[in-house]
């Protein structure tokens, strides 16, 4: 199955019965675990890495590996740059063959965010790649960046942003935040419904870690088509590797590598089942 574009996967979601999971990976083992999960469930997959994590996993090295993993996968797999902030990183992601990039201009004014996102869209279209934008502001911190407060997406701004930039996917803020929640978040499903009623491009939910199964189902039933999961995978892998070292102190490097693949796969399968992805490849 070929490497596919983000829009191919998201535009397939027409009946609000499922959403495509987009899973952050930081090494070969996580990418292998994600592909294994998707193949076992016969589910479409998005592999992504955020600019904030590149100091641990340089894009020049991990990027081609992600593209290779997608090309080898037996299910349709898109490769996406998550939270791109600089044109240099976005250009590099496109050069190594990512099929989509996110430009996160949420810290700018609406006007500047639109201008910068349009420039990214023009660059990406030269590669035949898709673009995800963000309007409003998802809270918390992605990677090593400073934590930011949630700024709920305004319906009028979402419409204007989507129309003027022509983005292929739009991340909105409806009460979620990146990382582990200190208290259970309250999602603004009414706002999601209002945005989904008037914005034509697929909507993206960031900050998936820590939401309940009911939250996920409520979001996808009301118009979310892409759901991002990062922290839950990192935490689950760390937990299983620590447990392995406790129960099998003689574990060698390859045991740890194998555990990482298995833990990534387990967490991703868990989320794919909640997102209704079984047999949606
Ligand atoms: P979590 O780390 O909260 O799962 O968020 C993932 C995300 O939205 C990546 O952009």
TrEMBL record:
PROSITE patterns: ALDOLASE_CLASS_II_2. The active site is at 82 (proton donor). Dihydroxyacetone phosphate binds at residues 179, 207-209, 228-231. Its cofactor is Zn(2+). Zn(2+) 1 binds at residues 83, 178, 206. It comes from the Bacteria. Pfam families: F_bP_aldolase. Zn(2+) 2 binds at residues 104, 134. Keywords: Metal-binding, Zinc. Binds 2 Zn(2+) ions per subunit. One is catalytic and the other provides a structural contribution. One of its GO terms (biological process) is carbohydrate metabolic process. The keyword Lipoprotein does not apply. GO terms for molecular function: aldehyde-lyase activity; zinc ion binding. NCBIfam families: cbbA (TIGR00167), PRK06806.1 (NF005288). This is Fructose-bisphosphate aldolase, class II. It comes from Propionispira arboris.
